[in-house]
Each structure stands twice: as C-alpha cells, then as structure tokens.
Automatic annotation (TrEMBL):
Region of interest (Disordered), ranges: 61-93
Protein name according to UniProt: No apical meristem-associated C-terminal domain-containing protein
Any coiled-coil regions, as ranges: 118-182
Keywords from the UniProt entry: Coiled coil
Amino acid sequence: MTREVVAYKKRWYKINKTVAQFAGCYDQASRNIRSGSNADDIKEFAYNLYSTNYETPLADELGVDSSVRPQGSNKSKRKGKGKAQMSEDFSEKKSSVVKKLSLMEDIKNVREKELMDREKEREEEREHRAKIMAIKEKELQIQAAMKEQELQAHRYIKEMEINAKEREMERMAKERERKMDMQILNADTSTMSEKRRALHEIACEKIIAKWFT
C-alpha cells in the first residue's frame, strides 16, 4: 500500500467521522426545529449544535452547501473583531502614552526653563549686590579720602596758626628789641661818664648797623 493510499484513507476516516457527527446534529435539529422553519433554519441549527457539541467549526471541505455562516465562522469573525478592537485599544493606549510623554517632556522643558530663569535671576541679583557693594566701597573710600583731606586741612590750618603766632611773637620780640635799641640811641649822654659814653657809642654803632644797614 502506497503512502498516497494511506493518506487518502486517513483523510476519509476523518471526513467520515465529521460527516457522521454533523448528520447526528442535523437529525437532532430536524426533530427539535419549531414549526414554520425552513431548510436553512435547520442547517443553521445543525451548525450551532455541531459547534456547541464538538467546539470545532465544520470544515468547508466537507462539501456542506449552506448560505448560513457556521458558528465557527461567527467565532472567527468575533475573534477578528476582538483583534481589531485590541489593535484599536492598543493604538489608543499608544496615543495616550505618546501624549503623556509629550506632556511630560513639555513639563520638563517648562521646569528647566523655570530653573534657568531662577538661576538667571539669582545671577542678576548677585551682580546687583556686587555693584551695590562696589558702590558702597567706593563711597567709603571717598568718605575716607574726604576725611583725610579734612584732617590735612585741619593740620595745615593749625600749622598756619602756629606759624602765625610764632611770627607774631617774633615780630613783637623784634619790636621790643627795636624799641629798646631806639631808647639806647636816644639816651641822654650829657650825664654819662667818659667810659659809659664810649660804651654807648659802641652800642649805637651796632644798633645802627643792625637796623639801618
């Protein structure tokens, strides 16, 4: 017996078993069908019984001619719809995830911008404080320089006053000395002795040399 013959026999046993099972379902459907039903209703009921009893759709190659879609096909259709629904749900979830990621990216960008703005504000505040400190330091330097100038002016005035007093004292001393010398020059020599008159003449010569030469 060739392999081809063996294959045909196995195929026939399978088809024969399926046909016998469907025939039983068809016979049961014929007995339980309601009045007013036609042949298509019987076949549809038979298909439903077969799918329910054996949980397998009737194969198309069995040659069952029916305009009614077997229940297995309905299951396949529902399965296809389920896959389509799952694909649609997946697309919606994917779109939702993409939107969330985009929103998170936007939030991240906003936070980064806020951090950059805060850092910029802090930097500007530090620069402003540094400028204020520099201005205050300059003001302190100016105040110190003005105070030093004031002290120097005070010392200069004090020195000028001291010098003026010293010059005044020198002038007064010279005035007293001149007055005394003038008294010596104008002294009456008629009552002086010869010796004293000689000394007076020497003193007068010195006074004249000091004041008039």
